[in-house]
Structure formats: structure tokens, C-alpha cells
Amino acid sequence: MTSEEITLKILKTLEERSDLTQRELAAKLGVSLGRTHYLLRSLIDVGMIKLQRFQRSSNKWGYAYLLTPKGLAGKAVITLRYLNQKQEEFEKLQRDIELLKAETDAYNSGE
């Protein structure tokens, strides 16, 4: 998975569940905790998400990762770019399938 794909998944996941820990987020994404931490820090640094402290229980503080307006706009841009990339891959795969079908049809008609 590319960093952009993981970034998109982080933004989508945090939009739904902002109270996840980094460890929970890493497990949900299937990537290392270190990579998750690095990407979260970079998203905070560029202003796409902000970290907000909240009290989880009477004696323990937690954090929420909240998407900023810049984060929502960035998510839309990344989503569109990802969609275009996947559409191109899909169309290439369709062309490859058609070529393979034509090739197998040629083999079958030659028998």
C-alpha cells in the first residue's frame, strides 16, 4: 500500500472514529505502529488533522484525531486522485482480459 492509500484510509477511518488509539488505527489499517505514527504526525503538521485531548475515564486521558476543514478538502482531493488511478488500472485490466480472450480464442479455433 502506498503512503497516499494509507493516508486516505487514515482520514476515512478517523472521520468515522476519531477516538482510536494509534495502536488500534495501525491494526485496523494493517500497517506498523511506527508508520501510522509517522503519517499521523505529518497530517497534524500540515494541518489536516488536529489532536484533541479528552477524558476517557475518571483517571485516564485519551486523544481524538479530528479532521480539520483542510483535512476534509484534502481527503476529497486524495479520493479523486485514487479513484482516477483505480479507474485507469481497471481499464488496463479490461484491455488485458480482452487480449487474453482473443488469444485463447485463436488457440481454440486452431485446434
Description:
With 111 residues, this protein is of the alpha+beta class. Helix content is 69%, strand content 15%. The protein has helices spanning 3-16, 22-29, 33-45, 69-110; strands at residues 49-57, 60-67. A two-stranded antiparallel sheet has the order 1-2. Helix 2 packs across helix 3. The longest helix has 42 residues, at 69-110. It is elongated. The relative contact order is 0.12. The model has no long low-confidence stretch (mean pLDDT 91).
Strand order across the biggest sheet?
1-2
Strand content: 15-25%
Strand elements, count: 2
What is the rounded distance between the termini?
43 Å
Radius of gyration based on Cα positions: 21 Å
Summarize the main sheet. Answer: 2 strands, antiparallel
Count of DSSP H/I helices: 4
Helix vs. strand class: alpha+beta
Strand and helix order: HHHEEH
Query: What value does the average pLDDT take?
Result: 91
Low-confidence stretches: none
The outline comes out as elongated
Share of helix among residues? Answer: 55-70%
